[in-house]
């Protein structure tokens, strides 16, 4: 029930192994966070940056897909909004932040069928 003085001293001495032992205990945890950053967070930040650049570069004539799934041709671009023609004579105003995909202007070459 009671610990002997020799056992108590040995247990206390093992617990105070120093800073190097403590660092080695946290090393796997630090490695996991580093791997998660490299595999998950950094690529996601790069995709977000590319998407933001594509949204900011929207111009008249581009085909866009909105978050709601509407596909249309950009007719007019403002600071925060774009006017999109989704059918002949049917134009809607969309907030640029809701655009999920920008398809650049089609080339002038005819499509091969």
Q: What can you tell me about this protein's structure?
A:
There is one protein chain. The chain has 113 residues and is α+β, with helices and mostly antiparallel strands. Helices cover 43% and strands 26% of the residues. It is built from 2 helices and 5 strands. It has a 5-stranded antiparallel beta sheet. It is rod-shaped and about 90 Å long. The C terminus is likely disordered.
Summarize this structure briefly.
This protein has 113 residues and is α+β, with helices and mostly antiparallel strands.
- Give the count of helical stretches: 2
Mean pLDDT: 83
Query: Termini distance?
Result: 89 Å
* Main sheet properties: 5 strands, antiparallel
Q: Summarize the helix and strand pattern as letters.
A: HHEEEEE
What characteristic shape results from the CA principal axes? rod-shaped
Q: Total number of β-strand segments?
A: 5
Q: From the structure provided, what is the oligomeric state, counting identical versus distinct chains?
A: single chain
Give a quick set of tags describing it.
single chain; disordered C terminus; 2 helices; alpha+beta
Give the arrangement of secondary structure elements.
Elements: H1 5-15, H2 19-56, E1 63-66, E2 71-77, E3 81-87, E4 90-95, E5 99-103
């Amino acid at each position: 029930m009671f610990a002997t003085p020799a056992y108590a001293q040995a247990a206390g001495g093992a617990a105070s192994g120093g800073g190097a032992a403590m660092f080695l205990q946290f090393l796997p945890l630090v490695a996991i966070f580093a791997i998660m950053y490299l595999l998950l967070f950094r690529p996601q930040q790069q995709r977000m940056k590319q998407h933001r650049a594509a949204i900011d570069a929207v111009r008249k004539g581009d085909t866009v897909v909105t978050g709601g799934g509407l596909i249309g041709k950009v007719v007019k671009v403002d600071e925060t909004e774009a006017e999109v023609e989704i059918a002949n004579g049917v134009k809607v105003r969309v907030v640029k932040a809701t655009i999920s995909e920008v398809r650049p202007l089609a080339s002038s070459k005819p499509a091969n069928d």
